[in-house]
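Title: [Solved] Alpha/beta hydrolase 3D structure

Original question kept below for reference.
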Amino acid sequence: MIIILCPGIHDLELTESFISELLSTVSDSAIGYNQLNILVVPTQGVLPLSATYVLQFMRDRLSNKRASPVIFISFSAGVVGAIAAAWQWQHEGGQVKAFVAIDGWGVPLWGNFPIHRLSHDFFTHWSSLLLGSGQNNFYAQPPVEHLTMWRSPQTVQGWQVDSSVENTTSNIRLTAAEFLHLLLRHYEAK
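Solution (posted by the thread starter after getting help):
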């Protein structure tokens, strides 16, 4: 499984922390280190906002693997460039297995692939749904600071929400890291 990680505009240490947590989460599961290929889009300045930049990075790294399915995991400003790159990648014949937006508040998310949102509080979750989302999403409860979602997803408690179900009794309590782990397991099995 190829994961395209699109960070936002922040210190590199936050992304390193996120990757470390992601790898430790999956190492305890059926998804192993050898099955994950994580490509981190380098971020300098406002480059995470550029779909052209993200797409060129993908073309450079995956030119001979266009048929390989990819999962985008993007954060904050990185969601902007990543969603447009995902559309274009698919338009060029690539396969987008899923798109995960972590705190991509204000970014419209539509596509011909599954989309999931993770939000640092309920307001961000609720207001982001108006701009498109998938059926299965997550929001932090209690609310956390924006950067905590990326730096320490294992510490963020919250709710997995099935947006197709009207009543909240179907919501599941877990951490943001556990939610991501469930998504990866789901898409690995597909």
